[in-house]
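Quick log. Single chain, no ligands specified.
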Amino acid sequence: MDTEVSYNFNDIRPLNNDEVRDAIEALVTNEDFERAFRYIKPDVNWKEFSETMRSFKTKEDFKSKLAYEAVMMVANKTTFSLTISGRSRLPKDKKPCTFISNHRDIVLDDSFLNVMLYDVGYGMTQVAIGDNLMIRPWIETLVRLNNSFIVKRGVSVRQMLDVSRTLSAYIRHTINETKEVKAVPRIRTTVHRVAY
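-> predicted structure:
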């Protein structure tokens, strides 16, 4: 008897590289995204920014050029330093693994981890983001462009088992097949925040 179950990950997976161009176009033409971005960076030249965004052909382009710079800008304004320890525990052959965070800061800690891993030559991880944070359609587009996958939290108790199985299967598939999730248990990142 075949016990293999087929899963469809389209509603939770990050974007594929062939979807990047359309996602970027959707973002740079979205007034809500522009308004949110201008709140963070009021002096942005939107036309130039849009052209820069349109030059990205892959998720890796987006993450290594724009997302990396954005995270480092936040780090420079809000932390004394970023450090990573436990590098000796990272697989030398860069085999994929899973990090489990303490959920202190849903997005920022994972973003800091990504830039630190990138800086030591390990590429960036996929990050799980709860659908409760997807309060605008452009936010989902942005996080999926940033190689994040969606955790469905707003489901009934009855649906939770199926959702958990699909999520587990997605993580297993990503590690075993796509080799994208690069993370290791017991690596420690330290963020020294500025006290205000």
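The radius of gyration is 18 Å.
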